[in-house]
Each structure stands twice: as C-alpha cells, then as structure tokens.
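Severity: low
Component: inverse-folding endpoint
Summary: output formatting inconsistent between runs
Steps to reproduce: submit the following structure tokens with default settings.
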C-alpha cells in the first residue's frame, strides 16, 4: 500500500512549524487526512498536537542533562538514537492508508541533512529503500528576507541544493514569510530570486567593488564590514552563484501562510511531486453527499 509524505525542513527561523500548521489547517478544510510527526526533540509549543512526537522517545533536554552535551551535539545524539529505534516510526506509520499525507517536521539544524548522513539515512528508511515505501517530497523553506542580503540568499540557496543532493528525493523549495517583504521589495525584482542566477550578484552595487577602490584604504582583518564588502568576498559569492547556476536545480515558490491560496498552491506542487492524486480512488458523487451529511449530523 502506497503512503505519501512531506519532509518539512530548512534553517532555524524559516517558519517550518508555522507552515506545518497552515498545511494541516488547509488539509482539514479540504477534508483530507493528515498525520503530523514532530521530529524536533526540542519543540514544545504546537498549534496542532502531533500524532507522533519524537519527545515520546527521546528529548533534547534530557540528553543535554544526562550526557553533558550541547544543543547541536545533543540533537545529533537524538537522531542517532532514533535511527537505532526506527520501530518507533514504523509502528506508527505502517497502518496509515494512501489517503493520508504524512507531515514530518524537522529541526532547524541544517547540518543534520547537509553535513552528516543522519536525515539521509532516515529518508532511506521511509522511502522505497525501507519497509514503509513512503513517496516522499522534501519541502525546504528559506526565509524571504534573505533576498535583501544577496550573499546570504545564495548561501541559503546553496544549503537547499546541498540538501537536494544529499536526500535524493523530489524537492519543493519555498521562500517563506512573503508578508515580511511585501512593499519593501518590488514584485519584478522578487521574481528574479525565484530562479536564482549570477546576474543577481552582478547587479548588486553594494558588493561590486573592493573597499580599496572605493577609497576605504587597506582591509583590516578585524573589520567585519570591510571583509564582507571586499573583492575576495565578492568573488566567493559569485563562485557560489555560478555553482548553483551550473547545477540548475534550485527554484523557489512563494509562501504566505496567511493566504489560503498560497498554502494551497504550495500543496499542489507537493502533491504533484509525490503523485498523490494518481493513487487516490475516484470518488462517487454519493460519497461527497454522504460526507456532507455526516458533517451536518455532527454539527
């Protein structure tokens, strides 16, 4: 039996859990079943209580206290412990039918899926390489305010591309919190970030010249602004941008979680990536009438 899921990830503060909440609300409004899995062992506050919570298996707070580890080391330990106890996931997900969308909410430490093979190993267990055979799509969120600092944007784009290469599953890359840049970034300019290329850096006047050329004198290694605005930093950013351009893998969707159509649009891309609708049984008109009848009786 086929299963379908979305792996929600991205750097800290990108709005992953907020997106999960908006996704759950949208699915419920459209009478679709979902199963929410929290894989962040430090998360505490939820708008929708997870159907499965990694903290029922292990928590970051307990690991830090008992093992004497810091937050990052503790998080890696939690995931390594999860990989040793995969029945925790398997037993909960195995009974789910193909009508469910499994939403897996990951923590914001991107080294879990870009630097060390922890999340890639988990993905292999969930997908066709494991027993669950989940058709999985990764939804990588990057905060839209990154577009204001183009070097930061390309660094975030590079991490998204790294995750795509490491996980080897269909990807949907998302610029989140679009409401924060409305009015401050023109729409025409914003569209250029949806398919990033090197021209974005070439047009960025703030980082196009060496401070020496601008008359700032010799670079002071202790002066962060001088280093971040120098020719070497500019060449590094252009090299990163060319790498992203050469692979031609990363493009972004826009997301405003306060806009129901925006959430629905992102969900449609996820559904297409995992071929969700192709596996669903055609519904008869009488089924729809029965559903509405049940809702009326419940009301």
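Observed output (run 2 of 3):
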């Amino acid at each position: 039996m086929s299963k379908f899921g979305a792996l929600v990830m991205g750097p800290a503060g990108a709005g992953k859990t907020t997106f999960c909440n908006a996704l759950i609300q949208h699915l419920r409004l459209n009478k679709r079943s979902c199963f929410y899995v929290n894989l962040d062992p430090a998360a505490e506050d939820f708008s929708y209580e997870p159907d499965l919570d990694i903290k029922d298996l292990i928590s970051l707070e307990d690991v830090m206290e008992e093992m004497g580890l810091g937050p990052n080391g503790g998080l890696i330990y939690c995931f390594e412990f999860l990989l040793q106890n995969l029945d925790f996931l398997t037993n909960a997900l195995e009974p789910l039918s193909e009508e469910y969308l499994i939403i897996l909410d990951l923590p914001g430490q991107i080294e879990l899926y870009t630097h060390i093979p922890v999340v890639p190993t988990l993905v292999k267990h969930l997908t066709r390489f494991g027993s669950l055979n989940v058709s999985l799509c990764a939804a990588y969120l990057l905060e839209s305010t990154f577009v204001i600092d183009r070097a930061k944007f390309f660094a975030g784009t590079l991490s998204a591309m790294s995750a795509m290469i490491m996980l080897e599953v269909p990807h949907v890359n998302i610029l989140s919190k679009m409401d924060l840049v409305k009015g401050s970034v023109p729409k025409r300019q914003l569209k250029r970030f949806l398919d990033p290329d090197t021209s974005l850096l070439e047009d960025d006047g703030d980082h196009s010249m060496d401070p020496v050329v601008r008359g700032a004198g010799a670079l002071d290694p202790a002066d962060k602004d001088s280093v971040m605005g120098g020719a070497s930093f500019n060449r590094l950013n252009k090299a990163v941008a060319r790498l992203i351009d050469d692979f031609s893998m990363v493009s972004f969707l826009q997301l405003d979680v306060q806009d129901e159509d925006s959430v629905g649009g992102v969900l449609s891309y996820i559904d297409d990536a995992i071929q969700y609708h192709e596996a669903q049984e055609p519904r008869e008109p009488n089924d729809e009438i029965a559903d509405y009848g049940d809702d009326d009786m419940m009301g």
